[in-house]
């Protein structure tokens, strides 16, 4: 039950943060251009947590909460507030409790943040002494890199290509 409250609270906080970030950028176009060049977080891109039985967990969320699930979890579709004609996505995934994907963190969860200009952001993070766990990897649906926060939480940064998710999953996501 705690995980449901945690995930619900996280989704609400992410939505509020995305709205405030968009409102700030609309009110100050110079800041938006500067932040896009620097690289920055634009919202939550995913919520990942460890589970004893990920398939059973996906089935439970599908049957009881109506999440449309696939082998990766559930993909939530939303509209960009500054470009409402464009779709964007948030990934919810249950991982095996034995996954090594969250390492070097030993935490039970990992947050994925949507970012703009991942290369500049990583450069800035390195300058600030932030531990970058790996190199930027590129896929057709975006670029990824992982960092650690001061409490050793592994964070996934994702510069998405939302149009690829739209092509693959249009009509199959929760709305």
**CATH structural class:** Alpha Beta
Main structural class? alpha+beta
Cα radius of gyration in angstroms: 16 Å
CATH homologous superfamily heading: 2,3-Dihydroxybiphenyl 1,2-Dioxygenase, domain 1
The number of distinct structural domains comes to: 1
Q: Architecture, according to CATH?
A: Roll
Shape: flat
Do you know the CATH topology? 2,3-Dihydroxybiphenyl 1,2-Dioxygenase, domain 1
Order of helices and strands: HHEHEEEEHEEEH
Number of helices: 5
The biggest sheet amounts to: 8 strands, mixed
Residue windows where pLDDT falls under 50 for at least 5 positions: 4-36
User: Helical amount among residues, as a percent range?
Assistant: 25-40%
**What's the overall average pLDDT, rounded?**
82
Q: Could you give the distance between the termini? A: 23 Å
Q: Reading side by side through the largest sheet, how are the strands ordered? A: 2-3-4-1-5-8-7-6
Q: What percentage of the residues does DSSP assign to strands (E)?
A: 25-35%
Number of strands: 8
Characterization of the model:
With 175 residues, this protein is of the alpha+beta class. It has one domain (2-169): 2,3-Dihydroxybiphenyl 1,2-Dioxygenase, domain 1 (Roll), CATH 3.10.180.10. Helix content is 38%, strand content 32%. It has 5 helices and 8 strands; from the N terminus they run ααβαββββαβββα. The protein has helices at residues 2-27, 29-38, 54-65, 118-127, 162-169; strands spanning 40-51, 69-70, 73-79, 87-96, 109-116, 137-139, 142-148, 154-160. The chain has an 8-stranded mixed β-sheet, sandwiched between helices. A hairpin with a 5-residue loop joins β7 and β8 (154-160). α1 (2-27) crosses α2 (29-38). The relative contact order is 0.17. Residues 4-36 have low confidence and may be disordered.
């Amino acid at each position: 039950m705690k995980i449901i409250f945690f995930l619900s609270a996280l989704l609400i906080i992410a939505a509020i943060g995305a709205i405030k970030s968009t409102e700030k950028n609309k009110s100050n176009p110079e800041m938006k251009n500067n932040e896009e060049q620097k690289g920055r977080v634009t919202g939550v891109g995913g919520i990942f947590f460890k589970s004893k039985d990920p398939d059973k967990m996906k089935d439970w969320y599908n049957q009881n909460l109506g999440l449309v699930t696939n082998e990766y979890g559930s993909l939530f579709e939303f509209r960009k507030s500054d470009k409402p004609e464009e779709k964007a996505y948030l990934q919810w995934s249950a991982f095996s409790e034995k996954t090594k994907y969250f390492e070097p963190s030993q935490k039970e969860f990992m947050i994925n943040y949507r970012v703009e200009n991942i290369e500049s952001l990583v450069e800035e993070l390195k300058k600030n002494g932030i531990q970058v766990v790996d190199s930027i990897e590129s896929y057709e649906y975006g670029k990824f890199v992982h960092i650690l926060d001061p409490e050793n939480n592994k964070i996934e940064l994702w510069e998405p290509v939302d149009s690829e998710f739209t092509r693959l999953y249009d009509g199959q996501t929760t709305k």
